[in-house]
Hints:
five-stranded antiparallel sheet; 2 domains; single chain; 19 helices; eight-stranded mixed sheet; alpha/beta; Alkaline Phosphatase, subunit A
Amino acid sequence: MQKELKNLLKLSVAFIAIIFFFSIARLYFYFSNQDIFDTNADFNLLNAFTNGFVYDLKFVFAINSIIIVLFFLPFRFRNTIFWQFIVKLFFTILNSSLVFLSFIDSKYYHIVGEHIKFFNIPDKSLYEQFISSLNKIDFQFYHSWDIVLVGLFTFIVLWSSFPSINKMYFERSKANLYFRFVISSLSIFFLWSSINEAKDKSGDWQVDLFRRTNHPTARLAINSPYYMLRFYYSDKLANNSYFDEKELRMLFSSEKNYFSRKPNKKNIIIINYSNTIENWKKLENNVKKLGSNYYISDNFSAQIKNVPKQMDELLLSFPAFSKSPLINSPYAFNQFQSLVELLKQNGYYTVLAINGSNKNQYKPYHHFYGFDKLVSRKQNHKLLATFEKEVKNTTEDAFFVFFQIDHGINEILTYINENELNKNTLVVANIQVSEKINDMQFGKTLYLMPDTLNKYFVSPRTQNLDIYPSVVDYLNLNEKFIAFGKSVFYKTKKLEVFQYTGQDYVILEDSLLLRYNGQSTKWIIDYKNDPDEFFDLQDSLPVQTVQLKNKIRAIIQKNNEMLIQNKMTISD
C-alpha cells in the first residue's frame, strides 16, 4: 500500500507540471492580447488569472481522469512495461498538445477576435477544423518559433515528470487492489463531475470571467454587439481617425442597469423547419383553416441579388435557423443564447424539441444555449406526446419551446390549434419554400398570435434577425436586450440594427447597410433601392464622406440612448 502511495505522489508531480504549463499559456494569452483587454476598463488581470486558473485546474483533472484510471487499473497487465509505456505516451501527447493548442489560440484570438472552436462544422473532422483555423491566421511554424520551442520543451518535461517505468513500485496485495479500485472509481466520478461543472455555455474561456468581474448586466452585455464593439474595436476606430478617442468612449461607456420587469404569461413557440416546403399554397391554406390570427412575411435576406459572398455573413440568419444549429459566427450563436437567457430571467421554462433524423447532432446544444430541458423523438406524435406530458401539463411557468424539425410542420401547427395553445402563445415558424426569385431560394416567416393584427403596424418584409426583437417587443419585457433586427410589431417607426460579425461591424438603418472591419470601411449598399450598387466610403467625395460619418455618429448615439432608456424605439 505504501508503494502505491509513492506512485500517487510521483504522479502528482506530473500534474503540477501540467498546471504550470497551462498557467504560462494563460498568462501568455493575456499579455499577447493586452491591447484588446486594455480597452475594457473593468478588466483586472489578477481576477482574470485567478478565475482562469480555477477553470484550468478543473479542466486538467477532468481530461486526465482517464490517465489516472489507466495508471491504477486493478489488473495484472497494468504492471507490464508495455502498458506503462502506452499510458506515459498517452499522457505526454495529450497534455503537451493541449498546451501547444493554448499558445496557438492566443495568436488566433489576437487576429480573429475569438477562441478556436471545434465541433462547429459537422461534416469536417477535428483535424480539418484545426487546419482551417490555422489557415485563417496564416500560421507558419517559422514565424512562431517561440510557440514551437515551448511545445517541444513541454513535451520533454511532461515525459520526464511522469513516473519512470524502471522505478515503478509493484505490489499485488489485497489492500493494494482495493486502493487501485478506489482511486479508479474516484477518478471516473471526478471526470463526470468536472465535465459538468467546467462546461462553458458559449465555448469561450472568458464568458464566466466577464460574468464575475463586470457589472450585473454582464450576462446580457456579453452577447451584445455594443459591448463587443467597445471591447474589441474602440482603440482601432480611434486610431483610424474616423472618430476621436474621447468621442468613442463617450458613445460606448454608458452604464446599462436592469429595470424592473413586467409580469407576462404568454408562451412562445418558435419552429425552424430545416427542409424545403414544395407546396407553400397548401400549407398557407391549412394555416387559414386553423382560424388563428396569423401573418406571413417574406424573408428579404434571401432575395438580395448579385451580392458578394460576404452578404451571407452580414445578414445573419437567426442562429439556429439552418440545417445545423451551430454556425461559424460565435456572435450569431450568442444571439439565440441571449434570447433563451433573457426569457429564463423572466421566469420562462425553456425547452428544445427535436424530431430530426440526426438527433445526436443537436443534443449538445441544449446545454450550450442554456435550455432547461431537451425533448428528442424521431416521430412527431411521440415528440408532441412527450412535450404535452413533460412540459405543457407539468410546468406552472410560461414556456418557451424551440422546435427544430425536418418534417411534420402541419402536424405541429394542428396540435397547437387543437390544444388551444394559440390563445396564449406567440408562434413563429421559419420556413424555406421551393419558390425562387432570381435563382435565389425564397423564405417565409409565419406568425400566429392570440391578438388581432390591428394592434400592430406589421412590417411587410422581415428577416430572420427580426424574430428576437419581435418576441421581446410582443411580450413587452421591461428588460435589457439588444435588438439585432427590427420588431415586426413596431408601432411607430423602424429600428436600427447594430450587428457585430466576427471581424465586421454593420449598421443597417431602413435601407443603408455599412460594412466596417475595424480598420477601414469596406463598402456601403442601399439594398432596397439599388442592391447592385456598392459605394466605398474612402473613395467617396469629401462632402459625402462627412455626411456618412455624421450619420454613423447619430445612429450610434441614438442606439446608445435606446439601451440606456430600455426602449425599442427612441422618442424624437
